[in-house]
Amino acid sequence: MPALFGVPREPAWPEPRIFRDWRLRALGMAILLVPFFVPIPVELRRHVLIATLGDRLHMVLLAGAALALYWRGPLRGRLLPAALAAAFLGGAIEILQELVGRTALFHDFVLDVMGIAMVVGWVVWRGHGRPAGILLVVGMLVVTGYQLRKLPSVMVAADRAAARFPVLEDCRSTVGAALWGTTDDIELIYVADGPDPCVRLTGGPPDRWPETTMRRFPHDWRGYEALELRVRHRSADRDSVPFGIRLDDFKSVRDGDWDWFAGNFVATSEWRTFVLPVAGQETRWQGRPLDLADMDKLTVFLDQPDTTMTLEFTDIRLR
User: Fold this and answer.
1) pTM for the whole thing?
2) Residue 1 has what pLDDT?
3) Does residue 155 form part of some domain?
4) CA 54 to CA 201: how far, in whole Å?
5) Residue 135 falls inside a structural domain
6) Where on the phi/psi map is residue 64: left (φ > 0), alpha (ψ -120 to 50), or beta?
7) 120, 147, 174: which is the final residue of a domain?
8) Containing domain of residue 301, as a range?
9) CA distance 251 to 262
10) Predicted confidence (pLDDT) at residue 235 exceeds the cutoff of 80
C-alpha cells in the first residue's frame, strides 16, 4: 500500500480534535455508511424536498469518507490517493446497494465525486494555501445550486397537484409547468392563457420519440380505472399525428429497467378525449403488474415523426 500510494504523512489540513476519540470516529463511520444501506420508506423517497436533498446527502457522506481516509490510515496526508480511494468506495457502495434492495445509480456516483472534489478543493485552499482550491469548492457549490434551482417552484407545483388530485393537469395556472420536463432539442410551451390552455409539445427528426415528462404528482393511483386526457395536433398539412402515453411506476424509474406500460393513439386537429386503462395492467417487457400504489412518471410522446410536429394536450385526470 505505501509503495502504491506513497508514505503516510502529516495532513496539510489537520484532523479536528473532536475526531481523535476512537468512539467518535466509529460513530462517524456508522453515520457515513448506514444511510447507504437502509431501505428508504416510500413516503420519504417520494417527498419532493426529502428526495431532492436526500440525493445531495451523497456529497456530504463521501466528503466525510474522503476526509477520514485523508486523516487516518495508510493514505494519511495523501490527498489525491485518499480522494481516489473515496471515489472507489462510492462506486463500490452503489454496487453493494443492490444486495439490500437499493439501486445502483450513476447519478448518485456523480454526487459522490462532487462531494470528494469539494474536500480536495478545501484542503488545497486551506491546507496548502493555494487559492486555486477555492475555485473548485465554489464551482461545486455553484453546480449544486444550479441543480436545485427549480426546487421551490417544484414544491409549490407538487402541493397544488396533491390538492387537485385526481386531476393531474388542467393547465389553469402556470404553476403546473414546474412538473414538466423535456430534452434540449424539443420545444415545450405551457399555455395557461386563452381559450385553450394546454401543454404544447413540438419535435421532429432526428429524435424518434420527442417527449415531455411529468413527475411529482400524487403516486397512489389505486382505486382508479383509467387515465384520460384531451389531445389535438397543430401540425401543418397533416390529417392525423400518432402519439403515445407512457406510465412508469417507481420501480421502473429507480431501477432503470425501462419496464413501462404504454398506449398508442392518433390525434386529429380537433380536440378528442383519449382513455388509457391502468387497472390490472402489466409492464411491457417483464410482464409484472403495474404498481398503481407507487406511480412515478407520465410521459407524452410523438411516435417517430417524419417531420416537425406539434401536439397539444390538457385535462389529464384519473377516473
Assistant:
1) 0.74
2) 39
3) no
4) 31
5) yes
6) alpha
7) 147
8) 166-318
9) 15
10) yes
With a CB cutoff of 8 Å and minimum separation 6, the contacts of 165 are 217, 218, 318
Distant-in-sequence, close-in-space partners of 53: CB < 8 Å, separation ≥ 6: none
147, 180, 205 — which closes off a domain? 147
User: Do residues 176 and 290 both lie within one domain?
Assistant: yes
* Percent with pLDDT over 90 in the chain: 56
Residue entry with cell 500500500? 1
Based on the structure, what is the number of domains in the chain?
Answer: 2
CA distance 87 to 216: 31
- Looking at this protein, which amino acid is placed at residue 266? V
Element (H, E) at 316: strand 309-318
Lowest mean pLDDT of 15-29, 119-133, 269-283, name the range.
Answer: 15-29
Whether residue 287 sits in one domain with residue 221: yes
CB 176 within 8 A of CB 155: no
* Dihedral over Cα of 173, 175, 178, 183: its sign: positive
Could you give the CA distance from residue 174 to residue 20 in angstroms, rounded to a whole number? 54
Q: CB–CB of 314/172 below 8 Å? A: no
